[in-house]
Hints:
Layout: H1 9-17, H2 33-37, H3 50-58, H4 62-67
Amino acid sequence: MEPASPISPVHQAVRNHLPPPPPPPQPPPPPNPQNTTSPSAKPTSPSTKPASKTCSTTTAPPSRSAAA
């Protein structure tokens, strides 16, 4: 054994047997200008379809009733 070595042979062997570190998580994709600026990019948004919005408001959509 080499006491002068900062990393003992045992530790070095253990490090060699360890699996490689997992890749870093991918950062979230950059915000899409279309998604941030235009509400039409969100199909779930009621403001996208005014006709559907007026019809859904008459039938009391679950989202508004839950908020109220």
